[in-house]
Amino acid sequence: MAETNDLNSDIRVVADHLDAFTRPLTYDEFVHEISVVVPASSDVHWMADNQLVNIFFARRTADTSLLTERIRQWIQ
């Protein structure tokens, strides 16, 4: 249960951090910004890389509102 709470907390921190951006991010910027706010050991890195990378295939950038909407859906 503690792991789930830690993951949910990390998800919220990442989503809140990305909400502060007013411009679209490139994939590299997105990955970097996740690294700024949660440790590399967090499953959020794996989840973002495996579940959100496809957003960047259609376009070179993604609106942070779309990213945070998808990220918040991970909260259990």
Query: For the report, how would you describe the main beta sheet?
Result: 2 strands, antiparallel
Uncertain runs: none
Helix content: 55-70%
Domain module count: 1
Give the H and E element order. Answer: HEHHHEH
How would the global form be characterised?
Answer: globular
* Overall average residue pLDDT: 91
Number of helices: 5
The fraction of residues assigned to DSSP E strands is: 5-15%
Span between N and C termini? Answer: 11 Å
> What's the total count of β strands?
2
Radius of gyration: 12 Å
Main structural class: mainly alpha
Record the strand order, biggest sheet.
Answer: 1-2
Explain what you see:
With 76 residues, this protein is mostly helical. It has one domain (2-72). Helices cover 67% and strands 5% of the residues. It contains five helices and two strands. It has a two-stranded antiparallel ribbon with strand order 1-2. α1 (2-19) crosses α2 (27-37) and α1 (2-19) packs antiparallel against α5 (64-72).
Brief account:
The protein is built from five helices and two strands. It is mainly α.
Secondary-structure blueprint:
Elements: H1 2-19, E1 25-26, H2 27-37, H3 43-51, H4 55-58, E2 61-62, H5 64-72
Antiparallel strand pairs: 1-2
Helix pairs in contact: 1-2, 1-5
Key phrases:
5 helices, 67% helix, 76 residues
